[in-house]
Each structure stands twice: as structure tokens, then as C-alpha cells.
From TrEMBL:
This is Trehalose-6-phosphate synthase. GO terms for biological process: trehalose biosynthetic process. GO terms for molecular function: alpha,alpha-trehalose-phosphate synthase (UDP-forming) activity. It comes from Actinomadura rayongensis. It comes from the Bacteria. Belongs to the glycosyltransferase 20 family.
Length: 476
């Protein structure tokens, strides 16, 4: 097999498989920024994990784990899917990555009895190490001499150092798509685990973040690492005889591709049926994955306060809440979705009438419907408690037909890119959010349209392709 000059590594790859009734494997193209970043990026090898039994079967069937790209539409990227044993994957992904690291970086630990670093957590950690080592082995095997490797996200924090050990000739980048926890929060991890994670990322030549805040937090955490020398002005960390540069690379959306997708027949059909359902009422829209960071329950509380304080909106507004199911293997995610649905039911019971649905909530996977909702939105509510970037805040203004007002959490990375023309709120302040929704609904159409056009311009200034190119260029 030929060796690659550019490699990307991430937990979730650009294609996944399911098994049809007759036993054949059916490929499905994944969405997201990374897939569009790689379209047209030239010859790249994308190394990812097999996420399900069907993926593992596909990986085993193909020589060397290389997935045949014929008809899979993943741009020019070749894909190598790693057949990691199911139990190891489960503990690394659900245990360590999603139940520990993701919560730490989003500062979300206030659950009774969690986090808890016990025997089970130690097993999760071992699996996480094995999972990262499997990536490092694959990358070390497939990279040409001096190749560039872009390792993605908190699932793979250890891989850069492991890879450097195996292949000191490579140029390695690590990119965090989440926030990075500030030291006071990062320190809740066992000391040796925190040190291992920092040393892992510091195995990279370049550590990239979506916003200035997250990069600064990372540097501040590195101050805690014995033996690390942080230069804040130069944004470098010297550790174990090697220097890591820290950089900020914002990520936006591909405007032309998104607009063309949003004008396809399946989206237009959903627009028509949504309009039929809500009539000419004003629309407050939110689109999220059902992640605990998205703050859907406080968003609903703000809508309730709007209806309580401003009865003039009764019958004249509908709130659309469309959510994609996420990480349903974790009890805490399932409980969160239940809390969203319960709160929604309360609001419907309190305000709904025979001829007015104040609230429509759907939890399923329907991207065309999200695009239809963006197109029709008068107000887009994006209020995460903490978010690496948040691309909903960037997609909505681009797809909006007549201009929507963005109500945006100041704790989303996107606030740094879009702040001025959005109405920014403290995501914990429900009353402030309710007041912003009211202000947004009252905003004159021409002001709204002008602000939305500027938001769309900024949202498309950093398309995924430029973002990836910046990461790779930082390695020169
Ligand atoms: C969240 C994080 C991303 C991460 C993604 C993975 O959205 O903010 O940084 O890449 O989860 O999601 P997955 O469905 O693959 O667990």
C-alpha cells in the first residue's frame, strides 16, 4: 500500500455502515465540518474508528482496513477504519471520552456522585490508552516520511505523543473541537491523568483551538504540568525537549454548498409543510444535538417566561425545537432528553389552545427539516452553557430567507466571531434570554435583515477547507 503525505485522524469517520435485512453492508456518508473540509483537499488518508458491529465487519472485509470509496462520496479521501475490539472501544468512547473528558471540558460536572475516579474509571483509562495507541500504530504505518498528520479532538488526546514516539519524523497537529477546561476545572482529573493528557497533546507540533479562550485555558493548564515551560506571548510550550505552538483557527460554514443544499426539493417540501402547520405566526427556532451543553431546558424556560410576561405574543408565535438524538448509550443523555420533553409538555399544557400550538418539539435525525426551519426562522436561539464553536449559529443566518435575529450565548466560541450582530446572553440567565427573545421578535424587518446579512458574511469567512488548510500550513 502506498504511504500518505497528509493524514487525518478522528474517532468518527466520513462513512458508516448498517446491515440490511439480507446481510449486506449499506454505507452512509457522514456529515459535519470535517467531511466538507476534506472535499477537494487532495489526497488524504482519513483514519477513523469502526463505531459499530457493521463498521467492524466492513473494516475486517477490506484489506488493511481500507474502505473502498467507490460511490461513498467522501471527496478524495481514502478511509482506513480501525477494527478496535468492541469492549475497548466502548470504554474509551463512552467511558473516558464522553463521560469524563467531554464533561470536564464543558465544565458540566454537577451530577450526584460524578465524576468518580474509581476502578471502573481506571479500566476506561486503559482502554482509552489502547484506543489511542491503535490510532498511533495505524498512522505510523501509513505515513510517508515527513508526512503531516492532523489529529482531531478529545478522543485522541494521547495519540500525538504516542505517534511522535513511533515516528519522530512526522509533523503532527492536534485540534480541539470542544472548549478546553480552565485549570480550576481541569484539576478535578486525577493528577497523573491530567498530566498524561497534556503531555499527549504536547506531542504535537501544533495544538489548535476554535477560540482564543480555549487556547488560553490550555496554556494555563500547561502551567500545572511539571517540566513544561509556557511562553504566553509566543504561545508556545516547551516540554520533554520539544516545542508545541498553540494556535486559534476559527471554523465557519461553506456558504455556496450550504445554500445549494438548502434550496433542494426535500428542504423546500419541508418548508411548505412547516408553513402549513404554523400559518403566518412568527417563528423562534432552535436546532441542537441533545447534548447536555446545549441548554435546551433553560431555553424552554426562557420561552415560557416570554409567554408569561408578554401575553401579546399568545397565538402569534411558535417555538420550533428540532433536536438530533445524541449518545443515547449514556443514561445521563437519555435523562436529559426526557427533561426536555417534560418541560415542553408543561409549556404546551399551560399555554396551548385549540387553534395555537405554542411549541413544536421533535427529537430525530432530519437535516433537511433543520434547513427548512433555518429558512423560515424569525429568531434563532443558540444558548449553550459552553460550546467549542457552535455551527448552528453560523448555518442559520446563511440559510435564512428574510433575515433572522440571532440570540446567542456568550459562552459559545461563535460569539467571538459573530458577537456584534447577535443579541448575546448569559446562558444561565433565563430572564435575560426571555427579554432577548422579545427584543428579537420586535426588531424591525430591515434592521434584522441587515444584521443577518452581516452575520452570514462572517459565518462564511472561514469555510472548513480554509480551516483545515490553516492547520496544515501551521506545520510548515
Ligand atoms: C460534540 C463535540 C465535538 C465532537 C462531537 C462528537 O459535538 O463538541 O467536538 O467531535 O461531539 O460526537 P459523536 O457523536 O461522534 O460522539
Amino acid at each position: 500500500m502506498s504511504m500518505s503525505r497528509v493524514l487525518v485522524a478522528s474517532n468518527r469517520g466520513p462513512v458508516s455502515f448498517s446491515t440490511a435485512d439480507d446481510g449486506t453492508l449499506v454505507p452512509r456518508r457522514g456529515g459535519g465540518g470535517l467531511v466538507s473540509a476534506l472535499a477537494g483537499a487532495g489526497e488524504v488518508l482519513w483514519v477513523c474508528a469502526a463505531l459499530s458491529e457493521a463498521d467492524r465487519t466492513a473494516a475486517r472485509k477490506s484489506p488493511d482496513g481500507r474502505i473502498d470509496q467507490a460511490g461513498h462520496d467522501t471527496g478524495d479521501a481514502a478511509v482506513r477504519m480501525l477494527d478496535i475490539p468492541a469492549a475497548t472501544f466502548e470504554r474509551a468512547y463512552n467511558g473516558m471520552a464522553n463521560s469524563t473528558l467531554w464533561f470536564v471540558h464543558h465544565m458540566l460536572y454537577d451530577l450526584p456522585g460524578e465524576p468518580c475516579f474509581d476502578a471502573r474509571a481506571r479500566r476506561d483509562r486503559q482502554s482509552y490508552e489502547a484506543y489511542n495507541a491503535a490510532f498511533a500504530d495505524a498512522l505510523a504505518r501509513d505515513a510517508a516520511p515527513g508526512a503531516k498528520v492532523a489529529v482531531q479532538d478529545y478522543h485522541l488526546a494521547l495519540a500525538p505523543a504516542m505517534l511522535r514516539e513511533r515516528r519522530p519524523d512526522l509533523r503532527i497537529a492536534h485540534f480541539s473541537h470542544t472548549p478546553w477546561a480552565p485549570p480550576d476545572y481541569f484539576r478535578l482529573l486525577p493528577d497523573d491523568l491530567g498530566a498524561e493528557l497534556l503531555a499527549g497533546v504536547l506531542g504535537a507540533d501544533h495544538a489548535g483551538f476554535l477560540a482564543e479562550r480555549w487556547a488560553s485555558a490550555f496554556l494555563a493548564c500547561c502551567e500545572l504540568l511539571p517540566g513544561a515551560r509556557v511562553d504566553h506571548a509566543a504561545r508556545t510550550v516547551r516540554y520533554a525537549g520539544h516545542v508545541t505552538h498553540v494556535g486559534v483557527h476559527g471554523l465557519g460554514v461553506d456558504g455556496p454548498a450550504l445554500r445549494s443544499r438548502a434550496s433542494s426539493p426535500d428542504v423546500l417540501a419541508r418548508e411548505t409543510s412547516l408553513r402549513d402547520r404554523v400559518g403566518d405566526r412568527r417563528l423562534i427556532v432552535r436546532i441542537d444535538r441533545t447534548e447536555l451543553s446545549k441548554n435546551i431546558v433553560r431555553g424552554l424556560a426562557a420561552y415560557r417566561e416570554l409567554l408569561t410576561d408578554h401575553p401579546e405574543w399568545h397565538g402569534r408565535v411558535t417555538h420550533l425545537v428540532f433536536a438530533y438524538p445524541s449518545r443515547t448509550d449514556l443514561a445521563v443523555y437519555r435523562a436529559y432528553t426526557d427533561a426536555v420533553l417534560r418541560t415542553a409538555a408543561d409549556i404546551r399544557a399551560e399555554f396551548g389552545t385549540a387553534d395555537w400550538e405554542p411549541l413544536i418539539v421533535e427529537v430525530n435525525d432530519d437535516y433537511p427539516r433543520s434547513l427548512a426551519a433555518y429558512a423560515l426562522a424569525d429568531v434563532l436561539l443558540v444558548n449553550p452553557v459552553r460550546d467549542g464553536m457552535n455551527l448552528v449559529a453560523k448555518e442559520g443566518p446563511v440559510v435564512s430567507r428574510d433575515g433572522c435575529t440571532l440570540v446567542l450565548s456568550r459562552e459559545a466560541g461563535a460569539a467571538a466571531d459573530l458577537g456584534e450582530d447577535a443579541l448575546t446572553v448569559n446562558p444561565f440567565d433565563v430572564s435575560q434570554t426571555a427579554a432577548a427573545l422579545h427584543q428579537a421578535l420586535l426588531m424591525p424587518a430591515d434592521v434584522r435583515a441587515a444584521r443577518c446579512a452581516r452575520l452570514a458574511e462572517r459565518a462564511t469567512a472561514l469555510p472548513p477547507r480554509a480551516w483545515l488548510a490553516a492547520q496544515l500550513a501551521a506545520l510548515d
